[in-house]
Amino acid sequence: MAKAILGIIGGSGIYDLPGLSNVREERVASPWGEPSGPLRIGEIDGLPVVFLSRHDKGHRLSPTDINYRANIDVLKRAGVTDLVSLSACGSFKEELPHGTFVLVDQFVDRTHRRESSFFGKGMVAHVSMAHPVAPLLRKRLGKAALAENIPANWGGTYVCIEGPQFSTYAESMTYKELGYSVIGMTNMPEAKLAREAEICYATAAMVTDFDCWHETHSAVTVQDIVKVLMENAEKAKRLVARLARDFPREHEPCPIGSDRALDTALITAPEGRDPALLAKLDAVAGRVLKS
């Protein structure tokens, strides 16, 4: 079995990860462009942990400006086997108030300006996204939340919008009527790219507000959510520390095949493959391309 390396992507309000020991900061080059920032590589209770701030320090990157391909690529190059996304979100359900962590199990992608695949002309691949979240990783997140007395909801659908604007009232009402649980701006195409890179992926979506559908929220403002962001960030740090402490030191094979997603995904015949694209896929798809 491979050694487990836990990756953490910190969203809004989470620009560092206290508790890491033997820390080094490393800028990893990617053929897909510039990642959000340097990787912070260290340990928690002996478990290798790699942290990346999604928006970079100072929150300099909007959801649309994030280079999701480069982020996932550098995490793969750092050896990450299991990736947890910590993401701020709005809620569509009364029973999911601010401060609740939703352990998402489904996504709806409403983005339209982002590169969403490592593959394309010269190397086509189709991975399954029927079940986008690695179940064992989500289960471990749930156990960590329970151990830390962090309110967590088991399951829910996250709709990802392009942003950077918040929803219109009509959009918010539509998503609520469709039964979605939370809304955010960053987990797509992140989850898709993690699957293509054969990294087990799970999200702790941290509720900051009821979206504008709610009678107490005629509009969502940054000022309204900053205080909740900070409270959620403190809980997220506790969550990660507990998760790492209890995490297996050897990578657990994913029961839905997240870590072997490319086994049956490549469709381009060897003679039709673009050497330039293959070179860029050395980290993401090296396991299957070498064989």
Describe the structure.
The protein has 7 helices and 11 strands. With 291 residues, the protein is of the alpha/beta class. Strands 1, 2, 3, 4, 5, 6, 7, 8, 9, 10 and 11 form an 11-stranded mixed β-sheet that branches. The protein is globular, with a radius of gyration of 18 Å.
Topology of this protein?
Blueprint: E1 6-10, E2 21-26, E3 39-44, E4 47-53, H1 68-77, E5 82-91, E6 101-103, E7 106-110, H2 135-147, E8 152-154, E9 157-161, H3 169-177, E10 182-184, H4 187-196, E11 200-210, H5 222-246, H6 275-280, H7 286-290
Helix pairs in contact: 2-5
Summarize this structure briefly.
With 291 residues, the protein is of the alpha/beta class. It is 27% helix and 22% strand.
Features:
single chain, eleven-stranded mixed sheet, globular, 22% strand, 291 residues, 11 strands, alpha/beta
Shape category: globular
Beta strand count: 11
Tell me the helix content. 25-40%
Q: What's the Cα radius of gyration?
A: 18 Å
The string of secondary-structure elements, in order, is EEEEHEEEHEEHEHEHHH
Overall pLDDT, averaged?
Answer: 95
Largest sheet: 11 strands, mixed
Oligomer: single chain
Q: Structural class, from secondary structure content? A: alpha/beta
Proportion of strand residues: 15-25%
Low-confidence stretches: none
SS field, number of helical segments: 7
What is the CA-CA span between the terminal residues?
18 Å
